């Protein structure tokens, strides 16, 4: 169950990162509210997952899901560029996440 909570926490991290971008420096109220609420949910789920998952693994996987998810959201929703080096960087992050999970 802790791994599921950690994965969901990572997804909420993607949501809050996206809406933080949309908040335009917290000048747009709705996007700002969504950012804060999804941050709290993400941190809460991360804290629950850390009850059983080691700190290093939990935090690394949480931030990795957020990083790769934000990368994908940026491309898909914001039209950010897709370059071979950006794809390689994301692939390296994913491989690190897999290794972290396998060793935890």
From TrEMBL:
Membrane topology according to the record: Multi-pass membrane protein
Superkingdom of the organism of origin: Bacteria
GO terms classed as biological process: xenobiotic detoxification by transmembrane export across the plasma membrane
Regions that span the bilayer: 27-47, 59-79, 85-103
Pfam family, one: Multi_Drug_Res
Principal location: membrane
A GO molecular function held by the record: transmembrane transporter activity
Keyword Transmembrane among UniProt keywords: yes
SUPFAM superfamilies, per database record: Multidrug resistance efflux transporter EmrE
Tagged with keyword Mitochondrion: no
Keywords per UniProt: Cell membrane, Membrane, Transmembrane, Transmembrane helix, Transport
Location relative to the cell: Cell membrane
GO CC list: plasma membrane
Protein family (similarity comment): Belongs to the drug/metabolite transporter (DMT) superfamily. Small multidrug resistance (SMR) (TC 2.A.7.1) family. Gdx/SugE subfamily.
Protein name: Guanidinium exporter
Protein's organism: Pseudidiomarina indica
